[in-house]
Write a structure and sequence with these properties.
The protein is 83% helix and 0% strand. It has two helices and no strands. The chain starts with a helix and ends in a 5-residue tail after the last helix. Keywords: Membrane, Transmembrane, Transmembrane helix.
Length: 46
Amino acid sequence: MSDILRWLVDMVARFTRSLDWVLCLALGALMVIGLSVLKSAGGAAN
């Protein structure tokens, strides 16, 4: 069991080391902008 957990922790560590954090932040900003546009275009549903 501990071998599986060690392997999973190693995979997560490798994944986070290889991420481009600036690109992830830019993608997150675009998603927030898109969601705010969808919410504002939805009209007065409430």
